[in-house]
Specification:
Elements: E1 2-5, H1 15-20, E2 36-40, E3 49-53, H2 54-62, H3 94-109, H4 135-153, H5 155-158, H6 165-169, H7 214-231, H8 253-272, H9 295-299, H10 316-319, E4 323-324, E5 327-328, H11 354-357
Antiparallel strand pairs: 1-2, 2-3, 4-5
Helix pairs in contact: 4-8
Length: 383
């Protein structure tokens, strides 16, 4: 990579280092104001570059709050978790469990209020005292499973940074960038059940094998622009502008994005859409569907969510594995699995399994996570 700038500056590539040295909101700007920074990703003179307005980047960076990690969990007595109805976080110690719950309440509720997800008179219950299901708890349980799934199965996209609840929620109950069904041709369905976005014709005239059209071109253009805005980058961040379809001439970021698209479809089909019966009507879209994710939901107009802050290394519960970057988590695996009687679901928690068993909208089963594309691959289009 070649970098050219109008004058010496700290550089956008130092964002991760700047984050690593900050505590909470104590951050410095990334570079001098009024600077345009050019990051070159291809041969000189080919236009393969990103131009960053550092005024804009500094404003967005300053508005990105990174919570200070909670102190490490202390020692815990051996044995199973002492609580009932713990269905997901049953492979961490008691101390780590308590620490994680405090983090969750801050990351999502923004107030540290346990009552946002729990019946404080009976923490093991999935219902209020009147029997009403606590939808926030049921959804949160499924979201923890989803977060672990992302970190465990999609390293080709999230790398060693991973995600936490805060990556999307940013201290709010509802993340940015959620979307609902519009019409049957909504371009955002690419993130749900449409597997093609290419409109490059392979023949001179229209045939059954060449279904490209002006309508498809508009669909793809809208989709690509939404992705570009979600990451605050231009087309050449992922593409060679002289040969958009050529994988072998594209920057590495295109492969990362390719895996990210498959990841978002997986999450929408298997975790987010099936929660529709759990949500109250106020949380559903105009057509009665559950909120779904897109690139913007995590990225929030940054090329890396939270500018690459590695929060997961401090929270084994959301990482879902016993080590981070080869370093074992001391608190992971300290608790006995949920098969112990003490950790079994409470008898009055009939709604506990609702998220996993809820019916799903009419969407296709997700395709398997793809290998890195080779050559001039041309996925089919459903449009």
């Amino acid at each position: 990579m070649i970098r050219a700038t109008a004058r010496p500056l700290a550089g956008l590539a130092l964002a991760a280092l700047a984050l690593a040295g900050c505590k909470g909101n104590e951050k410095t700007q990334l570079a001098q104001w009024g600077v345009k920074e050019t990051v070159q990703s291809g041969e000189r003179g080919t236009g393969m570059e990103q131009v960053y307005d550092m005024d804009d980047v500094n404003v967005r960076y300053a508005a990105t709050n990174i919570p200070t990690s909670l102190p490490p969990a202390g020692t815990s007595p051996p044995g199973p978790l002492p609580w009932k109805n713990v269905q997901v976080l049953n492979d961490i110690s008691v101390a780590e469990f308590n620490r994680t719950m405090v983090a969750f309440s801050t990351w999502v509720a923004g107030t540290g209020n346990c009552a946002y997800c729990h019946n404080v008179a009976n923490f093991s219950a999935d219902t209020l005292n009147d029997g009403t299901p606590i939808y926030t708890k049921l959804v949160a349980r499924r979201m923890i499973q989803m977060t672990r799934h992302i970190n465990g199965q999609y390293s080709a996209h999230v790398k060693n940074t991973g995600v936490t609840c805060y990556t999307c929620h940013r201290g709010k109950p509802l993340p940015n960038g959620l979307w609902f069904y519009g019409d049957q041709d909504d371009y955002l369905r690419h993130y749900l059940d449409r597997d093609g976005a290419r409109v490059i014709s392979q023949t001179e005239g229209p045939t059954n094998a060449n279904r490209s059209s002006v309508k498809q071109t508009e669909y793809t253009y809208a989709l690509m622009i939404s992705m570009s805005k979600s990451l605050n980058v231009n087309c050449t961040y992922c593409h060679n502008s002289r040969a958009f379809s050529r994988w072998e001439q594209s920057p590495p970021a295109r492969v990362t994005a390719y895996h990210g698209i498959y990841m978002v479809r997986d999450l929408n089909q298997n975790y987010l859409s099936p929660l529709r019966p759990v949500y109250p009507a106020v949380r559903l879209g105009p057509m009665g569907d559950a909120p779904k994710a897109q690139c913007l939901t995590c990225h929030n107009n940054a090329y890396k969510p939270l500018y690459g802050a590695q929060m997961t290394k401090d929270y084994p519960a959301v990482w879902g594995r016993s080590e981070w970057n080869g370093v074992p988590f001391p608190a992971f695996g300290a608790a006995i699995a949920a098969t112990a009687p003490e950790a079994a679901p409470a008898a009055d928690s009939a709604a506990a399994a609702a998220p996993a068993a809820a019916p799903t909208p009419a969407v296709d089963a997700p395709p398997p996570a793809p290998a890195a594309p080779q050559g001039n691959a041309q996925p089919r289009t459903n449009r």
